[in-house]
Design goal:
By secondary structure, the chain is of the alpha/beta class. It has two domains: about 10-130, Oxidized Rhodanese, domain 1, CATH 3.40.250.10; about 160-275, Rhodanese-like domain (Oxidized Rhodanese, domain 1, 3-Layer(aba) Sandwich), CATH 3.40.250.10. It has helices at about 10-15, 40-45, 75-80, 100-110, 125-130, 160-165, 180, 220-225, 245-255, 265-275, and strands at about 10, 25, 50-55, 90-95, 115-120, 170-175, 200, 235-240, 260-265. The strands form two sheets. The protein has a five-stranded parallel beta sheet. A four-stranded parallel beta sheet has the order 7-6-8-9, with helices on one face. Helix 9 (about 245-255) links the parallel strand 8 and strand 9. It is globular. The termini are far apart.
Length: about 290
Amino acid sequence: MADAFPILVSTQWLVGNLEAADIAVLDASRHLPAANRNPRAEFEASHIPGARFLDLETLTDAGSSVPAALPTAEQVSRRLALLGVTPDHRIVLYDDSAVKTSARAWLALTSHGLEHVAILDGGLAKWKAEGHPLESGVSEYPAAAPVALHDGNDAATKAEMLANIGSKAEQVLDARAADRVFGRGIDPVHGGQNGRIPGSLNLPFGQVFTEGGTFKQPAVLRAEFEQAGVDMERPLVTTCGSGVTASVLLFAARLAGKEDVRLYDGSWQEWEADPATPKAQGPKDTTGS
């Protein structure tokens, strides 16, 4: 196995490496409730040959006060072991989700020390569009022994985000659509009020993708962040509704070469539910709130 492994691989790369013994392809699809889709059923009906179903929806830390929190190191270790995946595997994640959930899976795995993890650029949609083979059913793999992973989740907490409003030590970038960030009324996805953390910038997550569904080139991504008001030389926290599309922005920032970026996992769902947190609503004003 090569020492270096990219965080993004193309469909052509996967075609050429799919049969390698150390490749583990994981379907990380997860959908919003309104989509009325069953990712496991869809996986069993059609998936990349040899792929294993990660069941991302269940990989959350139920012991956390954060809604749908990132999984613990033990949860990740246990799930991968059941799938027969070890840290020696080169893991390729893909999804068929409108909210690009591979990025959430990538963060869940890499935050606990797994180093050889990549996202399939364009996901299952591009794989299908190019006419690559598919299979149905469930491939059986012998379970592996669980390994100890470190708990390296560096997600920002609500307390840190509150302190940051005053210190402005980290920029805050919201991945939701502008009407949810700067609008009023009820959030159409998670309920509660629309709005934002005071001082938040906005880059809707869909803007980091090309029309074909692949990530834009690093230089173009950098320009997208800068156009949204992000200073790429300063630390950044990404947020969204529940921490999923914020993971997309975090991954895109990494592609653009930015390392000092982390996730506010609780995101607006946690922030809006707390009556003690300050909220901004309506059009962005000249103070950036």
